[in-house]
Design brief:
Blueprint: E1 6-8, E2 13-15, H1 27-45, H2 49-60, H3 65-72, H4 76-83
Antiparallel strand pairs: 1-2
Helix pairs in contact: 2-4, 3-4
């Protein structure tokens, strides 16, 4: 049987392989994240094209509303309105 690495103090012992503190992510968290990403992509795909464009530029490309207005040749208020 393989020995597992642990950290011990006088009153505490922790298994490094099972500690959430050291884990990059577990299967359940990964599955939830994938499901949420799929749901968000699905909702974005249902938006009208003008709203979809603003959402993608804002949330996926990180542009400011001023930049979005310039890129799409619309006013900042229109960009903000499409985001709603």
């Amino acid at each position: 049987m393989e020995q597992m690495n642990t950290i011990s103090t006088d009153n505490y012992e922790s298994d490094l392989f099972n500690s959430k503190k050291y884990a990059k992510g577990n299967i359940e968290d990964d599955l939830i994240k994938r499901e949420m990403h799929h749901a968000v992509r699905n909702m974005v795909s249902r938006l009208p094209d003008d709203q979809k464009e603003v959402v993608i530029l804002r949330h996926y490309s990180g542009f400011s509303f001023k930049e979005i207005a310039k890129i799409t040749n619309i006013s900042i208020n229109t960009a903000l309105g499409r985001m709603r």
